[in-house]
Amino acid sequence: MNRFIFASRYARRHLLLSVLVGCLSAATVFGLLYPPPFQHMLGASQVFVLLLAVDVVCGPLLTLVLASPRKSRQALWIDWSLIGTVQIIALLYGLHAVWIARPAVLAFEVDRLMVATANEVQIQDLSQAPQGMRSLPWWGVMPVHTRAPKDANETFEALELGMAGISPAMRPSWWLPWKKAQSAMAQRMQPVMDLLQRRPQEAARLQVAIQKTKLPLDQLYYLPLTSSKTRDYVILLDSDLNQVGWAEIDGF
Fold it and tell me: 10 Å Cβ neighbour count for 15?
């Protein structure tokens, strides 16, 4: 049998299997760990998709290069096992990388909602968080409120850490139960109509987000949604403070 025909047959099978595994991995990452808008805000989609594309393509290419009808069945299985092992290790490395950088905390800070990733949270201080908030979720975000500084020293410390990129959302000792944020959020949220008037250049994008909520405009409010990587998002809320949508717009 022609070597190329032989190798291409197995490479096609390998490609289909790799694509299937890749789709399941992507569904897990983007459906479980990084639901919208976090995949966009934190830049996970570009990194993981690139890694996944390399992993999916390289395995079948190696099969195409190494497979030969002149090799014994045992030699072929050794080749495929080694290629599969390399692919699995690369995939697990990528999954681990996106898991440790997953969004873990959604904190209300004064006038905004702040997303903190698992590797940004000061894990060593989790024991200082309130009961029931002393471990990070394996997926999804834990909603928290953040307290005000207790004195001038804490105010200065918060400013100093803030300049270093460490916000109260990343400091478990500053967390409070989510229910304590409700009154402050109600005072700080603004009508979406105001945002439409202030950002006319973004009106089309915002209108799409509004339509997805299926709520009347006069029942929609917003708060800025930020992370250590971007400030250009808003969370859409209904009158009961339920999160009903989001838009990629600067809310400040």
Answer: 18
How far apart are the C-alpha atoms of 223 and 107, rounded to whole Å? 12
pLDDT, tens only, 29-58: 888 899 889 988 888 777 777 777 878 888
- Nearest Cα neighbor of 158 from 173, 179, 143 is 173
CB 185 within 8 A of CB 236: no
Token pair belonging to 5: 């025909």
The CA-CA-CA angle for residues 9, 10, 12, to 5°, reads: 70
The set of long-range contacts for 179-182, using a CB threshold of 8 Å and a minimum separation of 24, is 179/145, 180/145, 181/108, 181/143, 181/144, 181/145, 182/241
Name the 3-class secondary structure at 100.
helix
Beta bridge partners, 153, equal none
Angle at 20 between CA 15 and CA 22, to 5 degrees: 90
Least confident among 17-26, 45-54, 107-116, 241-250: 45-54
With vertex at residue 93, the alpha carbon angle to CA 88 and CA 99, rounded to the nearest 5 degrees, is: 120
Global pTM reads 0.84
3-state SS, residue 37:
coil
Q: How far apart are CA 63 and CA 126, in angstroms?
A: 47
Phi, psi of 231 (to 5 degrees): -120, 5
